[in-house]
Structure formats: structure tokens, C-alpha cells
Design brief:
This protein has a domain of 190 residues: Metal-dependent hydrolases (TIM Barrel, Alpha-Beta Barrel). Helix content is 40%, strand content 14%. Helix 8 links the parallel strand 6 and strand 7. Pfam families: PHP.
Amino acid sequence: MRIDLHSHSDASDGTSPPAEVVRRARAAGVDVLALTDHDTTAGHAAAGRAALEAGLRLVPGMEMSCRRDGHSVHLLAYWFDPADEALVRECALIRQARDGRAEAMVGRLAELGVPITMEMVTAVAGGGVVGRPHIARVLAELGAVATPADAFTAEWIGTGGRAHVTRYAPDPARAVALVRAAGGTAVLAHPRRGFLMPDAWIAELAGSGLAGVEADHPDHDAEARAHLRGLAADLGLVVTGSSDDHGNLTGHRLGSETTAEEAYETLRAGRA
């Protein structure tokens, strides 16, 4: 069984509609897929219908944006109640903060001489949750950068960059608690991508109810994967693998990294 527990649609910063993400996953040989858009479950209904047609098992999920000591931390949440009031309220605050940050970043870019508008960004987002990748895509379309990836530098919208703006996001320990209270399970996403999350933070989250850690990720090298596997063993965490596919932005890599069936079943069985 091929299991991919991290993917994105155009409900957030992916480039394909939810149903297309499901169809592409099935075509890639994926049997179980988690749709984990940023801070929203808006794509679940369409993805669920497509999954039934494709004969694929869909895991309802979400990637929650968190922050600690000025660093971005992402938490993958699965099998939670999408109507849980506290979780819904927190995600609404996160999305509002995303919108406010996008407007502030667009303003800074305009001051730097880039002819960008918020209307351009929201058009690219297509009604989905606005994120930095949407701004990056507009910068590439305008010719300010060669590719969207080139926008994530100190010169533009990379962390600490000239046009970067911080925003509200909950501490990851609070996010873990919210997910568990909503009946879900939480896995730490790509903790060695860019910022190297301290082991002490992961240990603290494990003590707060974190269920797993995403070790096998396209942006993790062999050393990072081995380190995270060892840490997970020490802390009693499940190890997952996922593509973190964003459609065109990542080269349609659904199924490129997968989770072992035993790990998947352990996550399912350990829901709060």
C-alpha cells in the first residue's frame, strides 16, 4: 500500500483543484492520500467525491501554521472534527493573519518598485488561502524573479527579507492540544527543512501529545532523515514520509515519498 500523508491543492497554495490532486495521486499509484491544505478544510468535499470515484482512500487533513521564537513551524493534523469550534476559530485567526501579512508584503514590494497589487495575488490564489507562494508566483509573472522559488531570498520575501512580514500563528504545543481536543492526531511536518528545529522542541511536543514526525520529505537529506528516525525512536513517535506536493510548483511529485502501512495504522489507532 502506497501512502502519501502530505499534499496541497488550490484551496491553499497548491496549483491543482482538489479533485485533480486525487486523480493525479491515483495515477501515480497512491492508495491513501491526505489532503493537507494550509489552515483550511475547504478542499475536503471535492477531494472526497473524487476519491470515491478513483477508488482511493482519502485522509482528511490540514497543515496548521505555527510559530515559535520567530520561526515557522508546521503541524500536520489528521482525522479531526472539522466543526470543532476551538479549532475552527484558531484557523480563522491564522487565515486572517495570512491576509493581513500578504497586504503588508505587497505594500513593501510596491515600495521597492515592483508593480504588484493585492488583486494580482488574490487572482492567483483563486479564492484559496493566500500564502507567500502566491506572491512569489506573481513576482515571477512580473519578471521580478526568474522563478517563484527565487522570490524566497533576503532580497525579496524570504524570512527576514526586504519585503518579508511576520504574522500571527499559534505555538505548536497549543496547536497539538487543539488538534487532539478535536479528536485528531498531529504529526510534525518537515522539521529539518530550512530552519533546523531543536530536538528539545520536538521532545517537548512529544510530551504534549505529538504522535509523529515527518522524516522522509523531499527537502530532507539522508543525514536529516537518519537523525529524525533516531529521535523518533527515542521519543516513541511514528515516522512518516510524504511528498508535500504543490502541483506545478513542486513538479507533481505525489507519491515520491511514502509512509509505511504499519506507521499509518499506528497513527489511525492512536487518535485522541
